[in-house]
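Q: Sequence in, structure out?
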Amino acid sequence: MSTGVGDTSLHKVKIEETASSIVPLDRPALQRAQARLDGLTKPKGSLGRLEEVAASISAITGSERPSLGRKVIFTLAADHGICEEGVSAFPQEVTAQMVYNFLRGGAAINVLASHAGAEVIVVDMGIIGDILSDKANFINKKIARGTRNFSKGPAMTHGQAYDSIAAGMEVFDAAYDTGKIGIAGVGEMGIGNTASSSAIVSVMTGLDAGLVTGRGTGLDDGSYSRKVEAVRRSVALNRPDPADPVDVLAKVGGFEIGGIAGIILSAASKRVPVVVDGFISSCGAMIACGLCGNVKDYLIMSHQSVEAGHAAVLRHIGKKPLLNLDMRLGEGTGAALGISVAEAAIKLMNEMATFGEAGVSEDT
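A: Exactly. Output:
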């Protein structure tokens, strides 16, 4: 199996080329979709956000009557050196253990992806141990055996940051090449990654760590205080440049977060809508948006996590979540639900009758 490590200079060029190829939304397609939605047998706007999602997917794909077709959720996993500071209630071994659970089909993401009719592709972006699996839906793109402890220095080199983004792009491209993807979802697994995400959000929004750091896997008060202080101290030590998303990723991020950014960039370049899971996945989306402003319009934010920093991420990106179910699991579970909502929205637009077709008067 190939890994995510390669020629960093080539990866940087590929990332820049992909970002520059992402076009604005197809506004005429958006207008045609909205005209059809307005002509369906219902009061205008009465299906609320479902109409917004359907019109958005039309504009992303350039089709007035899009079909989602193949649905794929990418769940990326990696370990984090910041765990040395006691920022998680679970040991790091759980990252690899949960990946095996994903591959056996026993996790929440497997259940909800099946419900949505979506495939799950699991990617090792930087787990400490080796995942021994010959499953067709497992990909090894390991950048390193976990990031470094960013409370003592950068989480990774800038080269590794570029490598992680490029690895995510390669994962999406390879899946797309085996069969066109109509809609993608992104999720993650990594003990300690809420600390990395909190640091990213603190840097990119300018908010203090205390406002954007949550309890992750369920920390008690003492551990939560250590986590907030570790995030605050790490940001001050590393001084990431908020205007440079790769610098932020390198100094306080995670390999799976970079990989998610790469998947989003590649999907957007192919005009594939991406349903984003919760807090950590949204940080990957924030990195991608920093690399290309047009990315924002290709995103569907599935839900708002109870993690403290997620609302700040959503505000920064400028997107509203579809759902708020008090979820905080990750894995891509919210993305699976979001894909179900997106499919419902498309079916309504494609299968409902218009007033003319149904012979229903639309006079007011």
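The longest helix spans residues 158-177.
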